[in-house]
Structures are given as structure tokens and as C-alpha cells.
Design a protein that fits this description.
The chain is built from 11 helices and 16 strands. The protein has about 375 residues and is α+β, with helices and mostly antiparallel strands. It has 2 domains: about 10-150, Creatinase/prolidase N-terminal domain (Creatine Amidinohydrolase, Chain A, domain 1), CATH 3.40.350; about 155-374, Creatine Amidinohydrolase (Alpha-Beta Complex). Strand 14 and strand 15 (about 360-365) form a beta hairpin. It is globular, with a radius of gyration of 23 Å.
Length: about 375
């Protein structure tokens, strides 16, 4: 089996950049990234995720790119899912820590620099600190992020398919929308479509009807004429996520909404047209905000571009709260979203996935960006 996104040479370069001798993955998403082991909550059988409190899966990669994997001893199908050859079975949390410590000693890193995830369980971190008092422990979050930001062709393929299914779910919800339909019924339509299209599941099913909270659908609220309904869907296809959002209204679009959406589409397209390899997020963000100001004296919009892949928001590359001090690179995949508050109906806007190419951006999503009318 070949790696999906992990690259031995890239991992080695990243670890040397951060002066890390061995990096430990403890979260399901990073174990999956390093090894392909189905540790995610949407695996065909998410048993490794469910039992991680009893049989934690851990992965190590050292500064030459060599890997080692520790997982539940009863799981016998590792060869079908993982490219890692050095695999150790465990039957308890204690056994996992003994095994990982033995591997660090075997690699002669007992007094070297050990990278770890900031979300590593406390018992794991404390065990390692006690076992290796002469080692230097380094937060490895940025190292993992550096490995994951630029996507392989297989990763892009999976995000593209995920985006296609998310849009199919949104399109089906729009087609079946009518006065009186409830958010619960719409959620069922989304779930059914996603599963019928072959995805493992959904990362998020965000939906707001009128002034309802889009982060907490499922209250039984009904669609009625004049309410702007927002569907914000993230499907998971072979572990990889998408993020697409569109609005629909029954009857007439509320006064002023169409003008806002048209401007926000212009702002999004200006932003995307100016994303190129070698460009900088801080400069892009400022220029995009200035462009919005050139279109209107009123209406402050929210501009966000976040990396997308194994997680919906791997990191914010540019947003009101964060701008990374990096340059854009070919094969980064971004979700670019532009929002603005509208009267008593919350945020309205536009959101799409893009792949950075040699010359600019390729749009992965395809739905019309304007408000749909039923």
C-alpha cells in the first residue's frame, strides 16, 4: 500500500527544520496521516477510534522518515490499510507507553529531542517525561501542519470527491425545500444523500433557517417565505473533508440581500484571483478587505481562508483572528468564505473550496454562488 499524503522525504525535511529527532502522533487524525491506519471516527468500522481509551494507537516518525506504529493487538488487518512495516500490538494503555518508550530507546533518542502533539493525553506525556528525563520535549503541532498543508494528488482527488458529494447534498436539499419543511427533515435529506453517494459520513451539517442558530439545527423549525436558509455541508470521503455553503429562499429574496451576495461574490473572486504560489496571506487579506471597502461604504464582511484536508479547518491561513506568516504553495487546498451579517437573519455569504495551482487557483466546487429561489 502506498501513502496517501505522507511523504518520507518531506517528513524528514520538516523534522530537521524544527530540530526534532522523533515525532509522536497521538491523535486519530495524525496517526491516520502518518500510517493510513483507520483510526478516524468515520472509518468503515471505527473500532480503533472507539476503543482508543483502552488500546491507544500511536505512531512515530524519526528524522530520516522511518516510521513505527503501535496499535491494538487484536486488529489483524493492518497490512490492508497501512504502509508501515514496523508494527507493534498492545493490549492496554500501559503497554502502549512501554512499547513506544522501547522504540525511542532502540532508536537511541533517550536524551534527544522528542516532538509531541499538544493534545496528547496527559498520562502519555507524563509517562514519557518521567521515562526520558534527559530528553528535550518540543511541541510538534507545527511540524504536523507543515507536512499536511501541501496536498498530494491522491489527497486532492479525495477532497474533490468530497466536495462533489457535499454539493449534491446541498442541491438535493434545495430541490426538496418547500414551505413548512423542517430542519430535521432537511438534515435527513442531507445524511441520506451523503451516504447514498458513497461517503463515509459528514464532518458538519450546519444549517440556519432565518434567525435560527446554524450551529445547532434539529429543533424542528420550519422554512417559511422570506427566510434565508443556509446549508453549510462538509462530507467525508476516504477520510478527507470538504466545506461548501449556499443559501435558498422561498418566495422573494429579502430586500438588500441580493446586493450583498453579489458584492460578497465579487470579494471572494478578487481574493481567489490574487492567491498564487509565493504570495503572502497577510498581504492578500489586507488587499481583499480594501477591495470590499472600495465597493461599499457600509457593511463590514468577514474574510477567511482555511486549509482543508483531513480536518475542515486544519488551520486559518488568513482570517480576522489569524494570518499565517508563510507563503502560498502549489497544491495547498483552501476553503475561502466571505460572510456579512444581514438584518435579523444572521450571516449570509459564499463559501467554496480551491486548489492552488502553478498559476493561480482551481475551483473544486461548482454550484452557482447566488441565492437560490424556490
Amino acid at each position: 500500500m502506498q501513502p496517501i499524503g505522507f511523504n518520507k522525504e518531506k517528513a524528514s525535511a520538516v523534522l530537521k527544520k524544527y530540530d526534532i529527532d522523533v515525532l509522536i502522533a497521538s491523535s486519530p487524525v495524525n496517526v491516520f496521516y502518518l500510517t493510513g491506519l483507520p483510526t478516524l471516527h468515520v472509518a468503515p468500522n471505527p473500532i480503533l477510534y472507539v476503543l482508543s481509551n483502552q488500546y491507544p494507537s500511536l505512531a512515530l516518525v524519526k528524522n530520516d522518515g522511518e516510521e513505527s506504529l503501535i496499535t491494538w493487538i487484536t486488529y489483524r488487518s493492518i497490512d490492508n490499510f497501512s504502509w508501515v512495516k514496523d508494527v507493534h500490538g498492545i493490549g492496554s494503555p500501559k503497554a502502549a507507553m512501554v512499547t513506544i518508550s522501547d522504540k525511542i530507546k532502540e532508536w537511541e533518542f533517550s536524551n534527544k529531542k522528542i516532538g509531541y502533539e499538544s493534545h496528547m493525553p496527559t498520562y502519555q506525556y507524563q509517562y514519557l517525561k518521567n521515562e526520558f528525563p534527559n530528553a528535550t520535549f518540543i511541541n510538534g503541532d507545527q511540524a504536523f501542519l507543515d507536512m499536511r498543508l501541501v496536498k498530494s494528488e491522491e489527497e486532492v482527488k479525495r477532497i474533490r470527491k468530497s466536495t462533489e458529494i457535499s454539493e449534491k447534498a446541498i442541491k438535493t436539499m434545495i430541490e426538496e425545500a418547500h414551505e413548512g419543511i423542517t430542519d430535521n427533515e432537511l438534515l435527513q435529506i442531507a445524511r441520506r444523500t451523503i451516504i447514498n453517494e458513497g461517503a463515509e459520513g459528514w464532518d458538519h451539517l450546519t444549517m440556519g433557517i432565518g434567525s435560527s442558530d446554524p450551529e445547532a439545527p434539529g429543533t424542528g423549525i420550519q422554512m417559511k417565505p422570506g427566510d434565508i436558509t443556509r446549508f453549510d455541508i462538509g462530507t467525508i470521503w476516504k477520510g478527507y473533508v470538504s466545506d461548501v455553503s449556499r443559501e435558498v429562499v422561498i418566495g422573494k429574496i429579502p430586500e438588500g440581500a441580493q446586493e450583498i451576495i453579489e458584492r460578497l461574490i465579487q470579494v471572494q473572486e478578487f481574493c481567489v484571483e490574487n492567491i498564487k504560489p509565493g504570495g503572502y496571506p497577510k498581504e492578500l487579506y489586507k488587499n481583499t478587505m480594501d477591495f470590499n471597502k472600495s465597493l461599499t461604504k457600509f457593511g463590514r464582511c468577514f474574510i477567511t481562508g482555511h486549509s482543508i484536508g483531513l480536518e475542515c479547518e486544519e488551520t486559518h491561513i488568513f482570517s480576522p483572528i489569524k494570518k499565517l506568516d508563510i507563503s502560498f504553495e502549489e497544491n495547498m487546498v483552501l476553503d475561502v468564505e466571505i460572510w456579512q451579517n444581514f438584518k435579523n437573519q444572521g450571516l449570509i455569504g459564499v463559501e467554496d473550496c480551491y486548489r492552488i495551482t502553478k498559476s493561480g487557483c482551481e475551483r473544486l466546487s461548482s454550484l452557482d454562488k447566488n441565492i437560490f429561489v424556490k
